[in-house]
């Protein structure tokens, strides 16, 4: 049973992870972004990490807007975070890191995901947290049972400073409740539809800061990939929301060419900037994070 919106289930039919594959011009209704580093902390082997996202989104290329909810729970990390965690950090500068997919190092083979430290995760490990109830959105109370289907919302899903709350009745994941405020909407000027990465000088991306003490940003720029594949390189920047991020030219120079595609075939890779407030609920076997905020997609050129 998926998240229910105004009395009927509606699939949030496409979603983008920060380091995963992007929907390619398919006319899908929405998107989501994955946890990224530190969003749902690894509390140790065998612990549970959950992520519930309530995010508005804007596509600067098409002018489309929307919002949606996505929920997932897994061993040590949310399943969607696995893709980025498999990448190795090869260079850092300021708030940014250059990640690269390197050959697996697991010695005895690995059925699903091999991580840079040589550890293996053999099972995707999606877990049941019971019935989820989301309140505080403009759509009214929403409920969902496992497996949790991503669900669309009206674009203006909540007023600034509105409180979004999630209550889980518990199953494999113990019962929990968590609340997070809606920060001010993230707005990028339409001129940011295409952002060139410079090798000869810092690239600075700016936006109006949230003026919220707990707001953070996450930027992901991925290299081209084959259909349903993964980027070899990802430029990842994370930090407190101060209204700008600076990309060091050395990191930009290490990225492969990035062309602006028409997104009707393979290798389309929009960049994503997210601003959110993340609040974690700690329970006996780990923690579950509620993320509330906005995502903006644009293109990066190099």
Question: Explain this structure to me?
Answer:
With 302 residues, the chain is mainly beta. Helices cover 3% and strands 40% of the residues. It is built from two helices and 20 strands. The strands form five sheets. Strands 3, 4, 5, 6, 11, 14, 16, 17, 19 and 20 form a ten-stranded mixed beta sheet that branches. It has a four-stranded antiparallel beta sheet with strand order 10-9-12-13, with no helix packed on it. Strands 1-2 form a two-stranded antiparallel ribbon. The radius of gyration is 18 Å and the shape is globular. The protein starts with a strand and ends with a strand. 44% of the residues are buried. The N terminus is likely disordered.
Topology:
Layout: E1 4-5, E2 8-9, E3 48-59, E4 65-75, H1 82-85, E5 88-93, E6 96-100, E7 113-114, E8 120-121, E9 132-135, E10 142-144, E11 151-153, E12 163-168, E13 176-181, E14 194-196, E15 203-206, E16 215-222, E17 233-240, E18 244-247, H2 249-254, E19 271-283, E20 286-301
Parallel strand pairs: 3-20, 14-20
Antiparallel strand pairs: 1-2, 3-4, 4-11, 5-6, 6-17, 7-8, 9-10, 9-12, 12-13, 15-18, 16-17, 16-19, 19-20
